[in-house]
User: Fold this.
Amino acid sequence: MGIPDDEIDHDLLDFMRAALQGNTEAPPVAKPKTYVLESAQYIFDNAIDVALSREHVVKAAENIYTAMTKKAYSTETWSSHELHPKEKNEATVDFIFTMDLLNFSFWSELPPDKRFAVEYKGKTWSGYWSLVALLQRALDEGIPITTPSYWIDTELCTDEQLRHVFRSNTDEPFALLEERFECLREAGRVLCDRYDGSFANMIDEADGSAVALVVRLADEMECFRDEHMFEKRPVNFYKRAQILVADIWACFNGTSFGYFEDIDDLTMFADYRVPVTLTTLNCLLYGPTLEAHIKEKKIIPSGSSWEVQLRGASVWCVEQIRREILRNHPEAKVNAVLIDFYLYDTAKEMEEKGTEMIPHHRTRSIWY
Ligand SMILES: Nc1nc2c(c(CN[C@H]3C=C[C@H](O)[C@@H]3O)cn2[C@@H]2O[C@H](COP(=O)(O)O)[C@@H](O)[C@H]2O)c(=O)[nH]1
Assistant:
């Protein structure tokens, strides 16, 4: 069986053919690569504690395609969420950067009325939405929490002030608060030193490539460098760098700041919520020891073999679902980003409905 077509570098092949015919023009600039999909395939091929069910992937692909089509699931869905910013301007670019800089580790072992929560617009928000709510709350209070130059202003942006921004409406503090402050400081320094204090300028530098922007984020900001070792090899997930670019793309409907020619090259975002949906759909399977560990809500250390297998298999599973959908529906407007968004929203809907699901895995880190 030959190499799948979408893994052949056609630019390189064209260049080699031309060179053989004596045409020695400058070679094409090598396309940047995140190596997330290669990492996911390597992890999956060498995993012993996770597996995929081909039969359920095929079934899930059809069900997901049907549901997404019925819901007309598209980039427009992103802005339909109540708390997501609606304006299509640079302030929204700053908002999304801040949001995805801090988009990690919201899980809590406390019951819903005791876990970290933010009251905003008459509702109580937890998880990812508590972050979006507290950013909106700070802006309403006149605190420029989405402005990079503010994050490095030691006079105004004190830890005290940040603790006020991240205050909870319960007794539980936000997880990894100090690490979040460090993310703001580091990103603030880089954006102010190199991009005139604006992520929009960094988007410009990527020149319409989502992959180049993800690579630039991981290269230039340690807090986006979601890289680990598995079986003696480096593996990349770049979850927050990828979801940042995806959120910009979705918010701006692929235009303006959200224009990216290679958005389809992004992968699923390896978090702790979507694997629950994949498991509930019986696509992602855990070995008995790992499954028992997850069901007992025991900690899985960041960077451990189990955690890397779980994240890699989730990315690879969504890739198989994506390929299956496009195999049966070549015209479908789906990519890993929209499938991922749909799976995350489905996880939240199932949670709301009290659907019986395996608990999400417990890893505490700044990566997701
Ligand atoms: N793979 C993936 N992971 C996502 C999201 C989102 C929210 N994305 C919004 C944008 C478009 C979508 O329609 C959503 O409206 C958050 N997360 C991750 O989940 C975890 C939070 O879980 P919980 O504590 O239950 O809120 C945490 O790791 C967080 O980083 C996503 O879309 N995909």
